[in-house]
Design goal:
The structure is a homodimer. By secondary structure, chain A is of the alpha/beta class. Helix content of chain A is 41%, strand content 13%. Chains A and B meet through helix 3, helix 4 and helix 5 of A and helix 3, helix 4 and helix 5 of B.
């Protein structure tokens, strides 16, 4: 039986605000951290280069995988430029920025990748607080997937979701607590239009990010923002 | 919400004995059947051409997908010619013919593919009776995956595993009952060495297949071989 190591973690890493915050959360919680990025047909594939840059600067291992079969499977506005993006969640279904199975594939691939390297711990930046109609960001899905992965390979992986129960304001608080607020603000790419840092300012991702930041910067008692279970010891 | 149709099924299809039997099982149970094959770095990639040939002859839709990222993820003897194949299950782990995550990826991709086409029913030829150390052939894994897929996409897929509780002898009985014993015997490829039909005769897959066939051909009361739930109405 392959031995999985408790001292190392693999972060599913896009170079965005959320996964970058998770990367530094992982650095604070594990001795050795690896980042794995995916090329899946996203419009702004240079986000993978930004991801690599941040990972290198953070001193963590970096690897990328081409999984562009995902974008061929189902049309969506994140990978198909001919589809205009939904700016709000439509009634009766997820927005067309939903890439069906994306987190399913990312985490499944991460698990096989981790198993080969003896890494037990997987980290992902999904959050059901900012749940915008994406079923694969919910806690119950992640837990179900964790069991499925363990059964598929007869291993005991542990998926960590540091952002699951916090909102964008708290995600900024976590970055600040980890000492990387400026880094996250300046170097990460969240914007649907591919603009680094503060972004285009118009797309839903930019609005969410900016509102969270403003809310955080205006909070008087910043230390009370985060749940204890998340920051205990860091 | 996308409407999933109960009259159609998608079969995860390799062109081997098991999935070909499942293909005809699906034809007996659904109005319209599609077959989906995967190119995943297998040594005998012409099995996909054989699969297409059988699917066309059977009058079912056929499609293939390149998922060769699977073979790059983890070394195994089915996709890497430099690794000699285990002929028996080693102690303490699955044999090196195990491709970690293979059924996880095949069924996950099949589900996204089916969702795009409004197909609810997925069929796979996995069996835990012939369970040779592959954790991703077990019934509990398939059920866990079914739940995970449904949560990932907020849909209600149904995974069918006609061979789950029967052995190779009974699989021949099922093919016979479906009227395709000769077709399965002559046209399918199960052999690890890539030889169609009765195969090379030496590899573990050929031995299992031949022993099952001989046992079936020598069975006096062939009608008693199959569980009722499997053949009711066909």
């Amino acid at each position: 039986m392959i031995h999985l190591d408790n001292s190392r973690a693999l972060v599913v890493y896009s170079g965005g605000q959320d996964s970058t915050t998770c990367l530094f959360w992982a650095k604070a919680n594990f001795e050795e951290v690896h980042a794995l990025s995916f090329i899946y047909g996203q419009k702004h594939v240079h986000e993978v280069d930004l991801a690599e840059e941040i990972a290198r600067e953070a001193g963590v291992g970096f690897d990328k995988m081409d999984v562009s079969f995902i974008s061929r499977l189902a049309p969506n506005s994140l990978t198909d430029s001919s589809i205009p993006m939904d700016s709000e969640k439509p009634a009766g279904g997820p927005p067309n920025t939903f890439v069906p199975g994306r987190n399913l594939f990312f985490l499944s691939i991460a698990a096989v990748y981790a198993r080969e390297r003896g890494i037990r711990h997987l980290v992902t930046g999904v959050s059901q607080t900012d749940f915008s109609g994406y079923p694969d960001c919910r806690d119950a899905f992640i837990r179900s997937l964790n069991v499925t992965l363990n059964m598929a390979m007869e291993e005991q992986f542990v998926i960590h979701t540091p952002l699951m129960w916090i909102d964008k304001c708290q995600t900024w608080a976590l970055a600040d607590r980890l000492g990387v607020l400026d880094l996250v603000r300046e170097k990460t790419l969240t914007c649907y239009n591919g603009v680094k840092g503060d972004g285009c300012g118009h797309c839903p991702a930019c609005k969410l990010r900016r509102e969270g930041l403003e809310q955080y910067l205006h909070t008087e008692d910043k230390t009370a923002l985060l749940p204890t279970f998340l920051v205990h010891g860091i």
